[in-house]
Amino acid sequence: MASHNEKITLRQLQLLIILGAMGTGLIVLPRRVAQFAGRDGWLIVLGLTALAMVLAALLVAAARVKPGAAFMEYAGYALSRPVAYVIGALLWAKLVLSAGLELRAFLVITQQVLLRETPIFVVSVVMLFVCTYAAAKGIEARARVAEVLVLVMILPLLFLFALALLNINVSNLQPVFTTPPERLLTGTWRLGFIFTGLECLLLASPYIAREKKMGRAAVGAVGLAGLIITAITVITLAKFGSGVVDEPWPVLRMMDMLNLPGSFIERQEALMFSFWIVTVFALVNALIFFGGVLVADMWRGKKVARKGRPPVWAVMFTAAIVFAVTCMPWEGEGIYRRLDWLFYTGGAFFLLVFPILVLLGAGVRKKISAWRNTSVLILLAIPLMTFTGCYDRVEIEDRAFVVAMGLEKAEDSDERYTLTISTTSAENAEEGENEKQIKTASAQTLTEAMHKLDTEANQRFYYGQAKLLVLSESLLSEASLVKKALAALVQNPEIDRQIQIIATPDNIKEAIQTETYNKANAINFSLNLEDLNTKLQRNGCALIPAYPHGAVALKHFEKALNLDPEALRGFLWCFPQKNKNAVITITHDGEPIPFSLEKHTVEITFAHACPTPKITIHVLAEGRMNESFSLPPETVKLLIANKITGEIRATAEKLQAKNLDVYHWQEHLQKKQYKLYRQFGHPWVETFPKLQIVPIVSVNIKA
After folding, report:
1. In the chain, what is the greatest distance between 2 CA atoms, to the nearest angstrom?
2. CA neighbours within 13 Å on the CB side: how many for 493?
């Protein structure tokens, strides 16, 4: 550590890079790489690591075109001072948005996993206070904290993943190298958001004691962080196999599944969560620190920027804007879509385009200083001309936005599919009109039907905004039609794979016109295109919510069973919170007594039995009695518990009779009790119908 509090060593720089690199992306990365490359997802992580190392070397080279200079100084030297101010403001905005989105993702997961009743903004204030305090204390304080945190967290982390290695199934990674190269490259580009924070290397040069070796140190740190993330991804994929795409946070889930005999720690994922808190702190703290440095550099010049401690006002201003970003109403996958967009725009520019411009500008300045301004203009014009164009443009007035789609079997014997869409045009949207238009076309294939709609209308239909796909039961009754339709939908790049799917036995037009589908089963039980395709491909069966009530079970791409609302509720008892807000009505002496469910938890355990395993479903239902009753509370609890038990058994009997494991208990058995899985998991078609299902229900009535 340098004694003057303005420089840090190369080793401390590496620790800061490693901690910052393993931020929010680590928790969701195994699932996202599996969506692109399945069991070969770890190859994408290796590709990301190699790319990050190249970019780190490029960033350091750009920052050192004028050794020891702050951002505004070397950017102004290479690209002119006015251009440097514009790019500096854009870089500050990129740092603030990245910090806010990363912290928001962390806060959402924290609320869902640990602090369910705590408002997000409260946790945001606490986290930002710690990050801002450390940033205001300067680069030396940040480096010392990193040294302590790495020592505290690295041993527990290695211990947990060593235990996880004992519980994996390496066959989940086989066969390897089956993913097409273009798919791997697409995944590498689409997951570039994990580079968040790497652009801070553009601002770090003035704070490094041995600046000449900064490039080698940065590349080595990024490579080591990438290898750690690759190892975690490999372990996670080996643990869950293709089922990793169904886990929202697979790394946390894997930690939760660890079994530590004699351990006093009940929830092992809490250790992983604590490590993740440290990495998020390191990343957000770095972004706020360098955001404050950049503000001071643009406002008061290089003397302030070169100090190891940025002005408090600059740090506070940056942190305040970050807090505003975290308070935006972004949830779930929407956060990662915005992180992706931020990478495609600002990230790609500052990680690749800007360093190249700086290096070219500095080289031109050294050789032909008299032509400096002309060279800068030419260099700035090159990417503008390269990355822009309008040959394939579609005017907004010529677009119609599809908000819902319906697909059914064509009544005409010469056709196979009838596609119905609900659209709204840009013109109507601008005028505030909510009226939707219904368009219909029949054809041999879904692609042909979409083409017919385009050719028959005076506007081009855009399907990227569609939020609902309705499948008729007439279509679901023919496996060949379902299989071809799903393949066409999944392969269409314009259709969002998160589009919600429902089935209906009635009029397709009515289902896509009404807004009540969100109020039916989709509130607590929903299914999107990605999940439906994955479940049918992997397990051969899936359950689709039906409009207006109930659900449809598919087996081998064909309808096998209809579940009425009560049967569906019996199915949903096996999944926590899926029956939230349900009303269970019991009857005593002819009088109905309603029980309003507020929440329920469930724990499923397998035990050895003959001839098949016994599965025990422990359900705890909590709610209120909103109407008066004369029975003793214990009697009411017993009646409600019997009602829930009957629903679980009745639904299980229906599904077992059709051999429909829409519970996906085979995967549950594989992950939780692998010895039983090896004994009874194959063939599952013989085991599932004979499973001994024992519901144990407890009821808690709140005052």
Report:
1. 99
2. 1
Per the DSSP assignment, residues forming a β-bridge with 541 are 555
**Residue 620: band (very low, low, confident or very high) from pLDDT cuts 50, 70, 90:** very high
Q: Which residue has the tokens 């702050």?
A: 70
Q: What is the mean pLDDT of the chain?
A: 79
CA distance 103 to 281: 9
CA-to-CA dists, residue 529 to 220, 491, 522, angstroms: 41, 11, 14
User: Which of 101-110, 215-224, 471-480 is the least confident region?
Assistant: 101-110
Q: Which of 92, 91, 90, 75 is nearest to 376 (CA)?
A: 75
Residue 511 dihedral angles phi and psi, to the nearest 5°: -65, -40
Neighbouring C-alpha atoms within 13 Å toward the C-beta of 126: 9
* Residue 63: per-residue pLDDT: 86
pLDDT at 302 over 60: no
Which pLDDT does position 457 carry in this prediction? 76
For residue 266, what is the DSSP state? Answer: S
Torsion, Cα of 632, 633, 636, 641 (10° steps): -140
**Complete edge-to-edge strand list for the sheet that includes strand 551-555:** 541-545, 551-555, 558-563
Cα-trace Rg, the chain? 29
Buried b (16+ CB within 10 A) or exposed e, 399-419: bbbbbbbbbbbbeeeebbbbb
Of the candidates 107, 528, 183, 498, the one whose C-alpha atom is nearest the C-alpha of residue 337 is 498
Q: Has residue 252 got a pLDDT over 70?
A: no
- The number of C-alpha atoms within 13 Å of 386 and in the hemisphere containing its C-beta is 8
Tokens 């309008």 belong to residue: 390
Please give the C-alpha separations between residue 153 and each of 141, 160, 278, in angstroms, as whole numbers.
18, 11, 8
Q: What is the dihedral of CA 325, 328, 331, 337, to 10 degrees?
A: -50
Phi and psi at residue 627, in whole multiples of 5°?
Answer: -125, 155
- Residue type (1 letter), 121: F
| Contact indicator for 84, 357 with CB cutoff of 8 Å | no
- DSSP states of 36-85: HHGGGHHHHHHHHHHHHHHHHHHHHHHHTSSTT--HHHHHHHHH-HHHHH
Helix (H) or strand (E) holding 681: none
Among residues 108, 117, 161, 150, the alpha carbon closest in space to that of 269 is found at 161
Residue carrying structure tokens 């008061």: 300
Q: For the chain, what percentages of helix, strand and coil (3-state, to nearest 5) are there? A: 60, 15, 25
pLDDT of residue 522: 44
Global pTM value: 0.51
**Higher-scoring residue by pLDDT: 280, 441:** 441
Q: Average of pLDDT values for 107-127?
A: 77
The helix/strand/coil state of 156 is helix
**Interacting residues of 639 by C-beta distance below 8 A, sequence separation 6+:** 586, 588, 593, 631
DSSP codes joined into one string, 565-633: HHHHHHHHTTSTTTTTT-EEEEEETTEEEEEEEEEEEEEEEEE--SSS-EEEEEEEEEEE--S---S-H
Residues 6+ apart with CB under 8 A from 262: none
Q: Which of 678, 695, 696 is closest to 687 using CA atoms?
A: 678
Rounded Cα distance between 206 and 64, Å, is: 9
H-run or E-run covering 650: helix 633-657
- Over residues 553-603, the pLDDT tens digits come to 999 889 999 998 889 989 998 888 888 788 888 887 778 888 888 888 898
Name the token pair of 4.
């003057």
